[in-house]
Structures are given as C-alpha cells and as structure tokens.
Specification:
Strand content: 35-45%
Order of helices and strands: EEEEEEEEEEHEEEEEEEEEE
Distance between the termini: 22 Å
Number of strands: 20
Helix content: under 10%
Low-confidence stretches: 2-22, 247-260, 263-274
Shape: globular
Radius of gyration: 20 Å
Mean pLDDT: 84
Length: 293
C-alpha cells in the first residue's frame, strides 16, 4: 500500500450544512501518535464531551481492543474510569502501527403495546432482542447500531497490518497513513461500509480546542462513489474525524437523530421520538494528529 501516493481518481467532495444540534462527541486522545525507539508507553484519555478534547460530560467506559503491528491481540494497562474521563496505558513493544478500538453494536427501535408506542431498552442487542419485546407487542420497528472509535499509534516506521477489515459497519482503509499527516498535504482515505465502498458517507472533520475559539472550523464532506475522501488540514494539531450514515427518520419531532458517534438530548420536553421506521446507524470515529511539514 502506497500511503503517500495521491488518489488517482479525484474524490467528489461536497460541503453540506453543519448540524444545528450541539452533540456530545466520543473520542480517544493519545499522549503520542508516533514514537521512536523499541520500548515506549503511551497514555490515552477517553471521553464523551461537548468540547474536543475537554472533559465535561462523561467517560468512555468500554475497555478498548488492541491490535498489535503483527496482527496479534494486545491489551491496555492501568484502565481507570473516572467521573468525566477514562484513562489507560498502552505498552509498545513491537515496531509498527497499533490500533486501539472501541466497537459498540446494538439494536434500537420501538413497538406498540396496549395502544402505546414504547422504545426498546437501552443496551438491546441482536441476542437479547426477542426477550426485549413483550408478548402481544405489534408494529415492531428495529434497526441496527454499529459504531467504531479507533486511534492509531506507530512505533518506528508505519505499517498496514492493523487495517485488515471485518466487513462490519464503517471501516477505514487508509491511502495516506493516519500516522503520517502534515498540513501541506491532503490526507486521502477510503471508507468501507459492510465491506463495500461507502459511497455518500458524511465525513465531519473538527480540529481540537473548540472550547477556546468561537469558530468551530468544521469541515463536512461526502465520500465519492468509491468511498474515498480527501481532507485538507488547517493548522497542526489533533483532529476529530467522523464518517457516518443513518439514524435519520423521515418526519416527526426530533427528526434527524444523531449518529452513533454522537449523543444528543431528546427532542421536546417529553423526549418525543421521530415518526416513521428507524434507519440503521453506522459510524466511524478517529482522532488524528497533523504535524507541520
């Protein structure tokens, strides 16, 4: 894989209006994304917050999955969940690129019982769906939710083994390596959805530090027919990138629910849900470090 080579086919990128709702964003922030030597430690903060990358809402509680440069499973150490953030350490003992991931899968939706529409309990999965729907329920409407939150950390020279895909949800296939980003060169990525090119996915790019500026400096792009997108960076720093599709409803209060990579307050004082059948929600989130040339 040639990570530095520009896309041969130009990506069709369209800017769209930024979401009106203020959302809580999931993220992981490593103390370093690239290190030299042969034996290093990296500490990661993990949270859900309004301001990137500031602790103001809740921790990201899940224990991350680690894939080492040789493809074997690693582990996090010293995992601690506090009030506003979680922290953990990663011991780097191999040369190459590590992947740290939090993957959430579930089922959301509703049913009608005794003339009243009720929502499925939070945390429902495909395995527990049958038990979550009571006897006598009608008009059952469900959709799947799958979100990935990944970061990449490289010791020594970048490698590509950890980018092997599973065919589930949205996944990143880098053309530009995510640990080789500089401000004067665009980053070219491909996103797959369920193993196929993710055409028309919304890609949101936000530089960190939004707590200390009035302008969000958000880019909202679209992947082309091959699932490819090209991102032009601004100043050096850490960037939050999300690719997503779904979660919207055709009409009704609160239409346009947030994707899995974000959380929003329910619409209306009664927490009314949108009308119409739900759409599957799939999202991919990563934190990238962009350096000066």
């Amino acid at each position: 894989m040639d990570f530095r080579k520009p896309l041969l086919a130009a990506a069709a990128i369209a800017a769209i209006a930024a979401p009106a709702a203020i959302a809580h964003r999931m993220w992981m922030l490593p103390s370093s994304t690239t290190v030299s030597g042969t034996d290093n430690w990296v500490t990661v903060d993990a949270a859900v917050s309004n301001d990137l990358f500031f602790f103001d809402h809740q921790p990201l509680r899940a224990v991350p999955l680690v894939t080492q440069p040789d493809g074997s499973e690693g582990k996090v150490e010293n995992h601690n969940v506090g009030k506003f953030r979680a922290t953990f350490d990663l011991h780097l003992t191999q040369q190459g690129t590590y992947k740290v991931a939090v993957v959430n899968e579930g089922v959301f939706g509703s049913y009608v019982l005794n003339g009243e529409r009720k929502m499925l309990p939070r945390g429902t999965t495909a395995a527990t769906l049958a038990a979550a729907i009571p006897a006598g329920a009608t008009d059952v409407q469900t959709a799947e939710n799958l979100s990935r939150n990944e970061i990449f950390i490289t010791q020594g020279a970048p490698t590509s083994t950890v980018f092997k895909t599973s065919g589930r949800g949205i996944e990143l296939v880098p053309i530009t390596h995510p640990n080789d980003l500089v401000t004067n060169e665009p980053a070219n990525f491909q996103f797959l959805k369920n193993g196929k090119p993710g055409a028309g996915l919304t890609v949101t790019v936000i530089p960190g530090g939004i707590r200390y500026r009035d302008n969000l400096k958000e880019q909202v792009l679209k992947t082309d027919a091959e699932g490819k997108v090209s991102i032009k960076w601004g100043t050096p720093g850490m960037y939050w990138v999300m690719a997503n599709e779904g979660g919207e409803r055709p009409e009704g209060p609160g239409a346009g629910a947030a994707p899995a990579g974000q959380q929003t307050t329910p619409a209306g004082p009664g927490g009314e849900r949108p009308a119409g059948p739900p759409r599957a929600r799939v999202s991919y989130v990563t934190t990238l470090e962009v350096l000066a040339p």
